[in-house]
Amino acid sequence: MPLVPVRDLLAAAAAGPGALLAFNAVTLEHVQGVVTGAERAGRPVVVAVSQNAVRYAGGDPAPLAAAAVAVAQRSATPVGLHLDHVEDERLLRRTAEIGFSSVMVDASALPYDANVAKTRAAVAWAAGHGVLVEAELGQVGGKDGRVLDAHAPGARTDPREAAAFVAATGVQALAVAVGSSHAMTSRTASLDLELVAALASAVDVPLVLHGSSGVPDDVLAAGVAAGLVKVNVGTLLGVAFTAAVREVLADEAVVDPRTYLRPAREAVAAQVARTLALLGT
């Protein structure tokens, strides 16, 4: 079916129950696994490509974006495409050109006023290109080697500041720091559910959780019930993908990449289907 704007998928998720799930893709196998898993679950999904994935691909987003568009258009379930954690303005301005209907502008490491200014400028540009803008307020640690305690004073998103930020920028989705952390391979993180509920009451845009892979299933479900509308998943897929590859490569005679990429793709599909069944709208 045709690509579905992330704006429409978010609106449907906001009406509940469940959340919109966005899965990070690094390779074609990731994209195929995400869409296959969504089809199995019968749920809408977002394929997200991060600035880091673009950097890994040599700095040009077009090849992976073209693959994502092609796979998504052949899907039996609604698929949206999202460009994630963008700091480079040149990449931001390619969002619509390469088929993506939403972008996460990441200025969260900057001082508050600079975050507001950069996000507001992105929203102004995106308004003329049909692109939804997500931003981040607070500090979700674990990305790009930045060490930050998710429980440190000042790390979490303040509801009053969030309301002011949304009003000042016009941003249409807000990633919040509520206890999760990027790149966790153990599922031991806890969410501040009272803070999630307070943030949901303070702002009138969908709340987004980054760093969900380290959060146990039952806590994620509670977070969605408390007000999270979009949940991003990345490391969880990397764990499944890599485990499948390692199992095959235990046989040192294997040299054909298809031999290990096929089960890796299937492992991604299985994880996506399971997560969507648990949380998906």
UniProtKB/TrEMBL annotation:
It comes from the Bacteria. The active site is at D84. Its cofactor is Zn(2+). InterPro entries: Aldolase_TIM, Class_II_FBP_aldolase, FBA_II. Keywords: Lyase, Metal-binding, Zinc. The keyword Zinc applies. Binds 2 Zn(2+) ions per subunit. One is catalytic and the other provides a structural contribution. It is an enzyme of class 4 (lyase). Zn(2+) 2 binds at D106, E136. One of its GO terms (biological process) is carbohydrate metabolic process. Its EC number is 4.1.2.40. Zn(2+) 1 binds at H85, H182, H210. GO terms for molecular function: tagatose-bisphosphate aldolase activity; zinc ion binding. This is Tagatose 1,6-bisphosphate aldolase. It comes from uncultured Quadrisphaera sp. The lineage of its organism: Bacteria, Bacillati, Actinomycetota, Actinomycetes, Kineosporiales.
